[in-house]
Amino acid sequence: MSTSETEVSHGSTDTRFFGQPWALAHLFGVEMWERFSFYGMQGILLIYLYYSVTRGGLGIDEGVAGGIVGAYGGAVYLSTILGAWIADRMLGSERVLFFSAIVIMAGHIALALIPGVAGVGVGLVLVALGSGGLKANATSVVGTLYGTDDDRRDAGFSLFYLGINLGAFFGPILTGLLQSTIGFHFGFGLAAVGMALGLLQYSFGRKQLPEAARHVPNPLPRNRYVWVAVIAVAAIVVIAALVLVGVIRADNLSTIVIVGTVVAAIAYFAVILSSRRIDATERSRVWGFLPLFITSVAFWSLYQQQFTVLTVYSDKRLDRNLFGWEMPVSWVQSINPVFIIVLSGVFAAIWTKLGHRQPPTAVKFALAAIIMGGAFLLFLPFAGGGPNSTPLLAIVGILFVFTVAELLLSPVGLSVATKLAPASFQTQMVALFFLSVALGTAISGWLVQFYDPNNEVPYFAILGGIAVLVGIGLWLGAKPVLKLMKGVR
Q1: Where is the Major facilitator superfamily (MFS) profile domain (predicted)?
Q2: Which residues of 231-253 are buried (b: 16+ CB within 10 A; e: fewer)?
Q3: Relative to the CA of 206, which of 22, 314, 325, 340 has its CA 20 to 30 Å away?
């Protein structure tokens, strides 16, 4: 028996962390602190961009600011390609995760210390690159803790998702408090402190992870390292030149990220499907992943509007008065994580209880899209209201529906990506799932331009209706998709 097989076998008997392998605790911790910093920063980013200079912001047009946030969010998930490729070809997932955490911390420090647009540019680029590397690889490392037939896998990913959302809950609350009392840059500084704590914890626990987490499945020959460096430098020069000549601008960032993500996704599917390193079963499973990918794009296009349209909505339309005190805008971002913290354990228990009787992944994805579309339709009764016209309780209820949809798709999507992944494309298959998030997130920023507070009904009705139709389509095609997945549910 190989080392990795021995570790997986041991992991199947290790139930010290709420019925899961103890190594999951270390990944739970680093992801919790990374999400604290990520969502803490993102909770105040949009209003920092469009608030006037007298209010501590940069005074950027709201539509452009929303596009920047959407493009940044898309770039985070788009950069998972780079992180996954480095893991699969050069360093292994665990090492990339560690170095990515350092880059993220540097990005938050830049946002906190460098004033103006320069700080935003440097900070967001670093955070996007680091977060992309950490996201795909943390998920891949979690996958190494379980055998292929371990029924605890979906429950383990749901527990891992709990760690994500503990950080996502506390981040916006604390950064929002600092932003509203002593300024934006102190909020960004707290995000840097949070990532530093996550890095410290992971530094102590990383040695306890299985050796499979450090495995490089498809090593790049050493003589090609120079070419990688040349290509990296060339890419940086080209991007810098496009910015300087005005091809890449703040007002078209979301469109550029959308186009780049579509091209990357098509290329990735083509590379994997045409590879000689995968067999017929693995190739069929990748084809089975394609409709899940499309449904995921539709889902995230709506869900990620929490950070664009919903932030503007919360700032201008939501009644945020609590007993005479106005809560910070960023606190709305902490509502969803509360529900996830409560419900992720419930969903984990349900999947564990059902075991092989649980719905197949395609049905879970279909339900997620239908429910997410329904959440947008719930905005319709409040359409056309004035300032402070939407009760806080209404948004709480809508975000509850968001959460149910999310738990049917996001942790399940991470899990199925590891199960459907060909042996030679383990982390890169997870990156493909994140590409669907990248595309959906970028689209969510691009859609801001169509949001008109004076005519909201078409916006929420059309987007909600499209998501419902996508979900119904996948549900009707669930059996053919399951057949393509060759035994993976």
Answers
A1: 1-482
A2: eeeeeeeeeeeeeeeeeeebebb
A3: 340
**Nearest Cα residue to 250 out of 49, 421, 435:** 49
- Predicted confidence (pLDDT) per residue in 273-324, tens digit: 887 777 787 778 888 888 899 999 999 999 999 888 888 888 878 888 877 7
Residue 349 has pLDDT above 70, yes or no: yes
Instruction: Give the CB-side neighbour count of residue 106, counting CA atoms within 13 A.
Output: 12
Q: What are phi and psi of 17, to 5 degrees?
A: -110, 85
Q: How far apart are CA 295 and CA 480, in angstroms?
A: 15
Mean pLDDT within 339-363: 79
C-alpha triplet 147, 151, 155: angle, nearest 5°: 105
DSSP assignment of 388-427 equals T-B-HHHHHHHHHHHHHHHHHHHHHHHHHHHHH--GGGHH
What distances in angstroms separate CA 199 from CA 26, 74, 195, one per listed residue?
Answer: 11, 24, 6
So what CATH class is 18-484? mainly alpha
CA distance 244 to 266: 29
Return the structure tokens found at 271. Answer: 């590379």
CA-CA-CA-CA dihedral for 55, 60, 63, 68, to nearest 10: -110
Residue 36 has pLDDT above 60, yes or no: yes
Q: Which long-range contacts (CB under 8 A, 24 or more apart) does 275-280 make?
A: 275/422, 275/424, 275/425, 277/218, 277/422, 277/423, 277/424, 277/425, 278/422, 278/423, 278/424, 278/425
Please state the three-class secondary structure of 417-437 as a single string: HHHHCCHHHHHHHHHHHHHHH
Q: Is it the case that residue 2 has pLDDT exceeding 60?
A: no
pTM: 0.78
Tell me the per-residue pLDDT of 69-98, one tens digit each, with 9 for 90 and over. Answer: 888 888 887 787 788 788 888 888 888 888
Structure tokens at 53: 């200079």
Q: How far apart are CA 283 and CA 486, in angstroms?
A: 10
